[in-house]
Amino acid sequence: MPADVKPYLVPLPETVVWEPWHIETEEEGWTVLPDEIDGWDPGTDLRLARRVRVDANRLRHETGVEPADVVVAFSWTSSSTGMTEAGSPVPLGADGIAVLDARLVGERVSGTLTLRSALCLARRPTTLQPGVASIAGSVLCEQMQRVALESQSSMFPMQQIDFAATRLSPAASWHLESSTELLAPFFGAFRVLINTQDRELCAALMRGAKDRRQQALLDELEAGVAALLLEIALSVREDLIEREDWPPDTVGDVLDRTLEISGLELIPPSTGQDIAGLRTRLSGAVRQAGRGRTFR
Fold this sequence. Notes:
Blueprint: E1 16-18, E2 22-25, E3 29-32, E4 36-40, E5 46-54, H1 56-63, E6 70-78, E7 84-86, E8 90-91, E9 97-104, E10 112-121, E11 139-151, E12 158-161, E13 174-177, H2 186-189, E14 191-195, H3 199-204, H4 212-235, H5 237-240, H6 251-262, H7 272-288
């Protein structure tokens, strides 16, 4: 597209090789970063690393830029918190390789992460040439990857509060803050509130191994939240089908995908009998989607 054409020379795709991102885990050590991290504990730091290989001679020939004048920069953006942070730029080694190593603070990430790596001009060259990048920070090429963080206990950010100090029932274990503003950022509008009076559930949500009862509590929470999300999607179904493509990570996008995955073609119930049938179908759809307790 014309808007993508830069006012300076850029390297050919094969000149810069973006090796896969890897993630470090306690169970498996370093493994290739998947598109989804299932069972991620909210608040857990992410340790990521990758290598970037640059053919120095080709870079010099194709762009007019000296390899010593470029660095590989890395940044990430969280869809739920809206936060963007960057790591320290890494210069190319004598072998044309840069190793990115980053630790993403768990409290600042959730939802979908967009990881951006870019080969940038680090400094203004001593000699200016027509068509050659000359402004520090100019991006010669970049690569982006998205990874979804799927919590083991909930699809949303969580916060523990005392329901007795709010308008919420103090006898309830949890509450889903939600919105039907379909263009709003999903992870900014949806949040699971956990009642601190339910100490057993709060303990189950802590990091670490779970006993059978704790896992059952988490399964119940996950199934309940997933069923409520699906019910909300059904309530705005007519609005969802009016648009084919919702912006990524908006309320409309998530609700539309939730409805599509469920396979349900329902309308909100109007009678007691309809409610009973709807809840049964919701329960089945949630389990088929892999949420909550599975049959054994």
